[in-house]
Amino acid sequence: MEYLTGNLLKLRAPEPEDLDILYQWENDTSLWESGDTFAPFSRYILHEYLKTAKEDIYRAKQLRLMISRKSDAETVGMIDFTDFDPQNRRSNVGILIFPDFRQKGYAQEALKLMINYGFRKLHLHQLYAYINENNSVSIKLFSGCGFKHTATLQDWINKYENNYENVIVMQLISENNQLR
């Protein structure tokens, strides 16, 4: 079974050639609001990351994959497992589709591929995501892939000058490790 290839997309490991696109995306301050980035990344830091990105998920406790179109291999985003916990068989999942490539069904297909990989290949019991309460697009994406809103973390993110925002926790529990 091919876990990382769908109808439109292929998930692949980061390559040294991805340095420029990672540098662009990681330093685009408009994208920081959806994640937990608060400072720019240097080319050197990203270069070093790419050198170590080949580590096994069980050692690194994370896995970042590039999202590429099957038709022309253009990279349209990134998806990752972070806080991978093999003991409790769970992982946080995050996704970024670069703005130029949104509204084309890429996020949903990439997330479904990652869910399938997590449940069927890594035998995870659950996936979870922390999503800003005001990020209706991400909430709709994760809900559409079977995730349920299970908690609200009050005043979780300090956006600026003590202006706090809530974050919701969304979880997807595996039922016999089958994709929903």
Automatic annotation (TrEMBL):
Q: Which InterPro entries match?
A: Acyl_CoA_acyltransferase, GNAT_dom
Which ranges carry the N-acetyltransferase domain?
9-175
Pfam families in the record, alphabetically? Acetyltransf_3
Q: Which Gene3D superfamilies match?
A: 3.40.630.30
- Name the PANTHER family on file: GNAT-FAMILY ACETYLTRANSFERASE, SPERMIDINE N(1)-ACETYLTRANSFERASE
Q: What is this protein called?
A: GNAT family N-acetyltransferase
Q: Which organism is it from?
A: Coprobacter tertius
